[in-house]
Amino acid sequence: MEAIHSHNCNLNIWYYLPDEVWNKVAKLYERMPGWMGYIDGIPHWYGQEEDDVYIQASVELSGLSFYAQMDQSDWDSWIGRFKSEATKVLGFEVGEPEDGVE
Question: What is the pLDDT of residues 50-100, one digit of tens each?
Fold first, then answer.
């Protein structure tokens, strides 16, 4: 078993995008593996902060932000799927601004 690490990711899904976009994002949340629902208004997958493995998201000025605790390969798979599905659903390339995705 791989070691559990923390991961952060900011995506180019900006806070100021219209409700139509955010409604699509909310529906995508529910289709992602490990969906648990909103806990105190925060979307969670797999668990919560007190669990060994979890993912949570928040909307920040820097874009849609994910924080996760899980092994590297599971994280890479999950976030890769989210980016791919979001790109299809939203109609623009979803990725990390730090990697040059606008």
Answer: 999 999 999 999 999 999 999 999 999 999 999 999 999 999 999 998 777
Report residue 71: phi and psi, to 5°.
-75, 160
Rounded distance, CA 36 to CA 13, Å?
21
Rounded Cα–Cα distance for residues 45 and 61 (Å): 22
Nearest to 76 by CA among 64, 84, 88: 84
Sheet containing 54-60, strands listed edge to edge, beginning at the edge strand earlier in sequence: 5-11, 63-70, 54-60, 42-45, 35-39
Domains contained in the chain, number = 1
Cα distance between residue 23 and residue 100, in whole Å: 25
Domain extent at residue 43: 5-99
The strand pairing partners of 63, in sequence order, are 60
Rounded to whole angstroms, the Cα distance separating 20 from 39 reads 23
* Residues listed for the chain: 102
Amino acid 12 reads N
